Amino acid sequence: MILERLVLTNFRSYASLDLEFGEGANLILGSNASGKTNLAEAVYFLSLARSWRTQEEKNLIRFGSEACSIRAYVREGELHREILIELSEEGKRIFLNGKPVRRLSELSRITNVLLFTPSDVRLFKGPPGERRNFLDVSLSKRSNDYLALIGRYATLLKSRNALLKEGGRNRELLEVITEQLIEVQEPIVRYRTMYVTSLNAVLPGVLKDLRGETSTCSLVYRPFVRDDGSFKQRAQKAYQDALEGDLLHKSTSIGTHREDFSLKYNGKDVAEFGSQGENRMAALALKLSPFFLIEESEKKPICVLDDVTSELDAENQARLLAYLEKLGQSFLTATDLSLRGASVYEVADHKAIRRN
Residues of the chain with pLDDT > 70: what percent? Predict the structure, then answer.
């Protein structure tokens, strides 16, 4: 898919912006705090109608304004679409070709955006929630069923925790909710297992190209119980064993909301034994790997790389820039960068101008 044009009104620091983009690499250049990341954020917002920088959508509205909008013109093969997202104090409205979009899954099917930001350097060293979020976002874009499952799970988990906070007085209802949680989690674990297997098929090749050397690497997914044909029985026992502790702490201590995965790099856990450079490139390789799981060229994701080159040495930076040729349309923010054939945009004082 290709983002052909983006029009912003009162989004973040932009009072107005109207840009057309190239089909390959798009370099967004400017000094710090000039508005580069705000522009990248708008591109990413097209995928799931949410920001990676804030959960408060009112922060996306330009100071002093009551509302903002993102209008995008995207192309998938010969199919052209217009997306409009409006944010105000009353909430969020999304339109596709002038018609209201009721479910976010409709939007993610149209605009799939992969993202790498400076904070992703600590993806493997950081808290498990960040790694689970990667799985959930990636899988939600691929499967509406998975998106529905994690939504259902969140609702049931909230209900179970509410019962635990009451001291488990209604044990019968607690058992019912727990059984429903188990039923929802079995397909979640299966989806995650299959997705990690798919990633492991492409991840070593991506990391090899980015690092310039052959290495062994694989993701190790750790479900809260094994899916070996007796998932339900194992899960029931796990919840039974954890019940007294859950009642004491008034919270659900096990489940898919506590799961994690790690990366084995040359046989060792990269978070524990890997250098900062190895962690950075491993995280970048993982975030880019979903691109290669989509076979249809017109459905390939857009890649947004925010300030990805600032901490790379010259060799790794050169390999990354060369690698962009494999990624279709991409957006890179930087203070200064040169890439042959790229479309270049200069950002200053929260205004952006295309230079070529």
Answer: 100
**What is the arithmetic mean of pLDDT over 195-220?**
93
- Reduced DSSP (H G I as helix, E B as strand, rest coil) percent helix, strand, coil of the chain, to 5: 45, 25, 30
Domains of the chain, by residue range, sit at 1-112+309-356, 123-293
Spatial separation of the C-alpha atoms in residues 296 and 280, rounded to whole Å: 29
Q: Tokens 């409006």 sit at which residue?
A: 86
Q: What is the pLDDT of residue 149?
A: 96
Pick the CATH number of 1-112+309-356 from 3.30.230.10, 2.130.10.10, 3.40.50.300, 3.30.2130.10: 3.40.50.300
Q: Which two tokens stand for residue 238?
A: 């796990």
* CATH class given for the domain over 123-293: mainly alpha
Rounded CA-CA distance 294/284 in Å is: 18
> What is the pTM (predicted TM-score) of this model?
0.91
137 phi and psi, to 5 degrees? -65, -45
* Mean pLDDT value of segment 150-174: 94
Provide the 10 A C-beta neighbour count for residue 245: 11
Q: pLDDT tens-digit profile of 218-266?
A: 999 999 998 888 999 999 999 999 999 999 999 999 999 999 999 999 9
What is the Cα–Cα distance from 110 to 76, expressed in whole angstroms?
8
Pairwise CA distance, residues 20 & 2, whole Å: 11
Chain mean position to CA 244: 35
Return phi, psi of residue 126, to 5°: -80, -175
Q: Do 1-112+309-356 and 123-293 fold alike per CATH?
A: no
On the question of pLDDT at 167 being above 90, the answer is no
pLDDT confidence of 68, banded at 50, 70, 90?
very high
Instruction: At 239, list the tokens.
Output: 């919840």
